[in-house]
Design goal:
The chain is of the alpha/beta class and 303 residues long. It folds into three domains: 83 residues, Orthogonal Bundle (Arc Repressor Mutant, subunit A); 103 residues, Periplasmic binding protein-like II (D-Maltodextrin-Binding Protein, domain 2), CATH 3.40.190.10; 103 residues, D-Maltodextrin-Binding Protein, domain 2, CATH 3.40.190. Helix content is 39%, strand content 24%. Strands 3, 4, 5, 6, 7, 10, 11 and 12 form an eight-stranded mixed β-sheet that branches. Helix 1 crosses helix 4.
Length: 303
């Protein structure tokens, strides 16, 4: 018994007419009649009684139709459900991100995506930048928002799409001599004590590279995982710190001064996707993201 044979029977039962049923099935009436007769012979049961004007179901045909309607209905529902998965309208999306989703507006975009695709379950995994490369490699997350893209940190090819830019600024307490200045040369901070975030954070790498570029290695007095702790220590005049400008400009910090640097140290937020990830859900998320970002504000793509 083939599915097409069942559909042929249901079409004839629906229209009680071979011509109309054949039109629905896009075959000729004679072909349909032959196929139905062949199927009846295979079953050993007459499904239809035929007259010159009407085609009616026999008692056996009635039971066959009642049983197979449910089967075909379930199959149609299954096909529709699978099509949603194939089109990326249903499924799961695992997103990795450094703790910058709020300041870069990523939370808003993820929320908007969830509303447009309500049948997609979104799992968020927040970690420091370089802690997200292993789960990307292992396929535990589908994509990640990273503040530092290093292709040599991955065992596989990654596609990186720059989506936003920021810059390093210096933060000090209001009691620090730098606090009275709007701009300084970073090399003036060579003898200062620094507070730094986790060594696996993009900010740690950016701070090291910025200081090295002007000729000194920063002396780290404190290391912490949390921005709140860092800014609290700064406000106590325990040390100074290089941070992302969006981090400090989006929150009111007491007794903290923001000092811009003469050098322009750019920080870039990347959407990073494993090259071999062909998930329709990931494809839809990427398209949604770039449809809602201002093209004129996007940084240049990393090759």
């Amino acid at each position: 018994m083939e599915l097409y044979q069942i559909k042929y029977v249901l079409a004839v039962a629906k229209h009680q007419n071979f011509t109309n049923a054949a039109a629905e099935l896009c075959i000729t009436p004679s072909t349909l009649s032959q196929q139905i007769k062949k199927f009846e012979d295979e079953l050993g049961v007459e499904l239809f009684s035929r007259s010159t004007r009407h085609v009616q179901l026999t008692p056996g045909g009635l039971e066959f139709v009642e049983r197979t309607k449910r089967i075909v209905g379930d199959l149609d529902d299954s096909e529709k459900a699978m099509k949603k998965f194939a089109l990326g309208l249903k499924g799961q999306l695992s997103v990795g991100s450094t703790p910058v989703m709020k300041v870069f507006g990523i939370i808003h975009l993820i929320s908007a995506f969830g509303k447009q695709y309500p049948n997609i379950s979104i799992q968020l995994h927040e970690a420091e930048c370089f802690d997200l490369y292993p789960p990307l490699d292992a396929g535990k997350i589908d994509l990640a928002f990273l503040t530092a893209f290093k292709s040599d940190c991955s065992k596989q090819k990654l596609d990186a799409f720059p989506i936003a830019e920021d810059e390093l600024v210096l933060v000090t307490s209001l009691d620090h001599p730098f606090a009275k200045r709007k701009t300084i040369d970073l090399k003036e901070a060579a003898d200062e004590s620094f507070i730094i975030l986790s060594p696996t954070s993009g900010l740690y790498q950016d701070t090291l590279e910025a200081c090295h570029s002007v000729g000194f290695k920063p002396h780290f007095t404190f290391t912490t995982k949390y921005v709140d702790t860092c800014m609290g220590l700064v406000s106590e005049n325990a040390a100074i710190a290089c941070v992302s400008s969006k981090t400090v400009l989006n929150t009111l910090w007491k007794n903290v001064a923001i000092v811009h640097l003469k050098q322009h140290f750019v920080r870039t937020l990347f959407l990073v996707i494993p090259h071999n990830n062909k998930s329709p859900v990931v494809r839809n998320f990427k398209k949604f993201l770039f449809d809602h970002l201002d093209p004129s504000q996007l940084p240049k793509k990393v090759e």
